[in-house]
Amino acid sequence: MSRRIHLLPETLTHRIAAGEVVERPASIVKELMENALDAGATEITIELEQGGCGLIRISDNGSGISAEDVPLAFARHATSKIAEFDDLYRVRSFGFRGEALASIASISRTELVTRTPEALAGIRIIVEAGKMIERAEAGCPVGTTVTVSRIFDSVPVRKKFLKSENTERSYCLDVITRLALANPEVRVRVLAKGRELFSYPATPRLAERIAIVLGQRDSQRMRPIEGATAGLKVYGFASQPDLTCATTKQIYTFVNRRHVKDYLLNHAVMTAYRRVIEPRRYPAAVLYIDLDPADVDVNVHPAKLEVRFRQPRIVYEAVVEALSLMLRGLAQPPSIEHSH
Ligand code: ADP
Ligand code: MG
How remote is the CA of residue 35 from the centroid of ligand 1, in Å? Predict the structure, then answer.
């Protein structure tokens, strides 16, 4: 083994770095769906083969990418979403690191077909294990379709870490659920083996999207919540105390419509419910927190699952208060007019 220090070839460093972004098929689904949302799509179709382990295809009717920009889209740290460091504290888009396509393409065979509304023809580009192997004109509708196959073929170790197809599929569906909950105005269709598994129609109403995603039975026992303090809004739906779950899995939290897993937010939810549900039972909640992007750092984690609040206490209390307000309302005795 050589003991001399040497720079690793780029294809290898990319593959190493890709590990942070692309952990499993569900990570690919997340990144590609977020790109589609950032592109302003109103319709996204997700196709999964072998639970996403065989093939993932995501089509959108968004802005498309111009022919000159297509190769750049696959370059590391190439993004159209931010221009300077301070933009990180203004971003409203899901993406900004310019890493996803480069990472995905470095561990798979990735085909991208795209057309902008102005372009007369679309373009197809195929990148395999980080190398562009084809680039040609292609007829296609406005928007982008990315097809990812041979996932982790160049990273056998990672492939071994994948769970069963069923488990990987459920991770993919989880990602789709969360993005669907945050973006009701986008139609989402999921296909498997060429057939539609399910679809969520576009709606301007969050309540309607939540009902179709979580199911009528549960959503009927969820109540709207609403709260606001200076520069911060908390809204969404949360369960009445008669709807509880064995895990915290049904607590969905979003910050500026970005799904996050945050200990503080979960803790705030539990605190609000502490007196009304049994220990080791958990409520269902779909909670949205909107605040000035300058008050939250989303650049903490490559997959952007974690955030840091500038004023965590204020966020915490706003969530507890909004939920408590709803729960107190339920506890009111019925008024005389309604009691007979
Ligand atoms: P990021 O989303 O962080 O910018 P990505 O690697 O995910 O980085 O994408 C790189 C760039 O490619 C994006 O900034 C965007 O300009 C373009 N892009 C990727 N996917 C799409 C898409 N579905 N529609 C339009 N543009 C896209
Ligand atoms: Mg992206």
Answer: 5
- Cross-strand bridge partners of residue 47: 57, 191
Is the complex ipTM more than 0.90?
yes
State both tokens at 242: 């008669």
**Smallest-distance ligand from the CA of 146:** 1
Task: Report the candidate in 308, 309, 305, 315 with the shortest Cα–Cα distance to residue 94.
Answer: 305
CATH number of the domain bearing residue 211: 3.30.230.10
pLDDT of residue 340: 47
**76-80, 101-105, 123-127, 316-320, range with the lowest pLDDT:** 76-80
Q: How confident is the model at residue 318 (pLDDT cuts 50, 70, 90)?
A: very high
Of 200, 234, 260, the domain-final residue: 200
* Residues within 5 A (CB) of ion ligand 2: 35, 95, 100
**Domain ends where: 174, 200, 226?**
200
Once rounded to an integer, what is the mean pLDDT over residues 16-25?
79
- What is the pLDDT at residue 150? 96
Q: Does residue 335 surpass a pLDDT of 80?
A: no
Quick one: how many helices (H) and strands (E) in the chain? 10, 15
Question: Is residue 339 assigned to a domain?
Answer: no
Share of the chain above pLDDT 90, in %: 70
What is the distance between the alpha carbons of residues 107 and 194, in angstroms, rounded to a whole number?
25
Ligand 1 site, residue 99, Cβ cutoff 6 A: yes
Q: Which CATH number does the domain housing residue 129 bear?
A: 3.30.565.10
Residue in 245, 253, 317 with CA at minimum distance from that of residue 278: 245
Report the chain's mean pLDDT, rounded to a whole number. Answer: 90
